[in-house]
Amino acid sequence: MRKGFCGGIWKAGIRVNSSGISLLEISVVMAIVMIVLGVALIGVRAGNSANQSLNTASRVLQADIRYAQRLAIIEGERIRVVFSRHENRYSIIRPSDEEVIRRAELPTGISFAEHIGTLEYLPRGTVNVGMTIRLRNESYQQSITITPVSGRTRVYDAVPVRSTPTSEASYRSRAPLEGGKSWKNLV
Predict the structure, then answer these.
(1) How many CA atoms, within 13 angstroms, populate the side-chain half-sphere of residue 118?
(2) What's residue 165's pLDDT?
(3) Exposure check for the chain: N or C terminus, fewer CB within 10 A?
(4) For 118-156, b where at least 16 C-beta lie within 10 A, e where not — what string?
(5) Cα(54)–Cα(110) distance, rounded to whole angstroms?
(6) How far is CA 103 from the centre of its chain?
(7) Contact, 83 vs 118, CB < 8 A?
(8) How many CA atoms does the CB half-sphere of 52 hold within 13 Å?
(9) pLDDT of residue 9
(10) Which pLDDT score, from 0 to 100, does residue 52 have?
(11) How many CB atoms lie within 10 A of CB 17?
């Protein structure tokens, strides 16, 4: 082997330059990396904005439930949280005089996924029955659980909403019910 100009090494008649990478090559690679990262960030932000309002609504509801628990402890009396699925709102009520302490509506596009009923905190801040409250928007569902006895609340991560089959073919593919009832009438 013989040494070439600028420290390069000759191999099989081809000069290999060991001086490094040119500024143009670095610029091209950086531009490609920036484009790929930009596309990835746009996709991540689009997914996050879809459940950001759902997450905010869940956290506000959790805070209101905790407020009801603290109020029951401080005032030494029962406090109820009454959920209205059809009106998309909930109220914190003092049952002794039916005073509405707080009434809040869910943000537009967010609703209760199912009928919930009433949560009642006892004067010690405990609940007799635990429950799970599910909030949903068009593409995600988020759960808030209240554990029995302690009354502890916990918000779980949003999960995509599964679509329910509603076509005639999907009803026909199900096993028949007793008494000639139809799945279509039950859904």
Answers:
(1) 11
(2) 45
(3) N
(4) ebbbbeebbbeeebebbbbbeebbbbbebeeeebebebe
(5) 7
(6) 23
(7) yes
(8) 7
(9) 56
(10) 84
(11) 12
Distances (CA, A) of 120 to 78, 124, 161: 7, 11, 29
DSSP 8-class letter at 27: H
Continuous segment of H or E residues that includes residue 34:
helix 23-75
Name the residue type at position 145: T
Amino acid at 97: D
What is the structure's pLDDT at 90?
Answer: 94
SS3 content of the chain, % helix, strand, coil (to 5): 35, 25, 35
Where in the chain are the domains? 5-39, 43-164
pLDDT attached to residue 173: 44
Give the C-alpha separation, 115 to 90, whole Å. 12
Write the class of the CATH domain 43-164: alpha beta
pLDDT score of 92:
94
Pull the structure tokens for residue 29: 């690679």
pTM > 0.85: no
Which parts of the chain sit beneath pLDDT 50?
1, 3-6, 164-177, 183-187
